[in-house]
Amino acid sequence: MALLPKPWPVGLVEQVEPLVRRVLAPNGSAWTYTGTQTFLVGDGRGLAVIDPGPDDAAHLDALLRAIGPAPVVAILCTHTHRDHSPAAAPLAAATGAPVIGCAPLRTSGGDAVTDAPFDLDYTPDRVLADGEALAGPGWTLTAIATPGHASNHLCFALEGTGILFTGDHVMGWATSVVAPPDGDMADYLASLERLHDREDRIYYPAHGPAVTRPRQLVRGMIGHRRQREAQILRLLAEDTAELPALVEQMYRGLAPALIGAAQQSVWAHLVDLERRGLVGRSGPSWIIAP
After folding, report:
1. Which residues pair with 288 in a beta bridge?
2. CB neighbours (10 Å) of residue 33?
3. Is 9 helix (H, G, I), strand (E, B) or coil?
4. Is the pLDDT confidence value at 5 over 80?
5. pLDDT tens track for 148-180
6. For a tag on the chain, would you pick the N or C end, based on fewer CB atoms within 10 A?
7. Spatial distance between the Cα atoms of 270 and 214, rounded to a whole number of angstroms
């Protein structure tokens, strides 16, 4: 796991590129690392705010201080998990800017457990389609559809700079959690392949440090997921197993706080393998398909 300097610069404005600044939200956790990083793209002539983060008063104040008198052209969200998009509405109210980016998401028709990670109040003024561009003074951002971690996930390419804002799709500190039913392992791997085919210079994820060798990291992530898939098939060939037992064998010594995330990703692999006819279910247990 990559380490960042402590104390973490919560609420401070950091200039990371000529046109890019970031502000860290105070929501660090085992799931978010040091917290959600909100990126400000542009200069005093007009800004885009990417992933405004949680609806936290201190974070909103920090963003408004960083924005200052500059007009906000758009507030963009990569996806609608609760650590990314809830601040969009109060920031829009404070600045008058439209909320643009990913589509809204309705996951389960009201199941509280399934819906818990999602910002169901997110209401964009405009949804960006794959490949659609948004321009401001001196910058153009292009939406890259990258479903998998979330079905509505977008990355944003800052044209002419080699910069890609990757949200939660690719992070340097950990692999993304893929949690069904909204998360989809097949989509996630296809989206990784899509990014690997690009030639971006650097990734700025919503959590953790910048990724300075993006294609190498993405290639490793694809390989890691294929290894996990092969591991599942090998274990099930030896014996049937329920999900918790599989995770215990696959992730020996894992910190208790991360077991839930590991279970979700293994579940996503199992669902993908089942769709492909490679595994099946026998009651609560998973088996190699006959």
Report:
1. 279
2. 23
3. coil
4. no
5. 999 999 999 999 999 999 999 999 888 898 999
6. C
7. 27
3-state secondary structure of 68: coil
State the DSSP H helix or E strand holding residue 38, giving kind and residue range, or none if neither.
strand 37-43
CA separation for the pair 164, 155 (Å, rounded): 7
Measured between alpha carbons, how far is 60 from 88 in angstroms, rounded to an integer?
Answer: 10
Tell me the pairing of strands 139-145 and 154-158: antiparallel
Tokens standing for residue 276: 């492909």
| Cα 204 to Cα 188: distance, rounded to the nearest angstrom | 18
Bridge partners of residue 143, in order along the sequence: 156
Can you tell me which residue has the tokens 């457990």? 113
Mean pLDDT of the chain: 92
Each residue's pLDDT tens digit, 15-29: 999 999 999 999 988
Q: Which domains does the chain have, with CATH numbers?
A: 13-212 (3.60.15.10), 229-288 (1.10.10.10)
Is the preceding omega at residue 7 within 30 degrees of 0, hence cis? yes
Tokens of 83: 């650590």
The pTM score is: 0.93
* HSE, side-chain direction, 13 A CA sphere, residue 4: 16
| Number of helices followed by number of strands (H, E) in the chain | 7, 14
Bridge partners, 144 (sequence order):
155
User: 3-state DSSP call for residue 128?
Assistant: coil
Q: How far apart are the C-alpha atoms of 169 and 218, rounded to whole Å?
A: 10
**pLDDT score for 112:** 42
**pLDDT at 116 (0 to 100):** 66
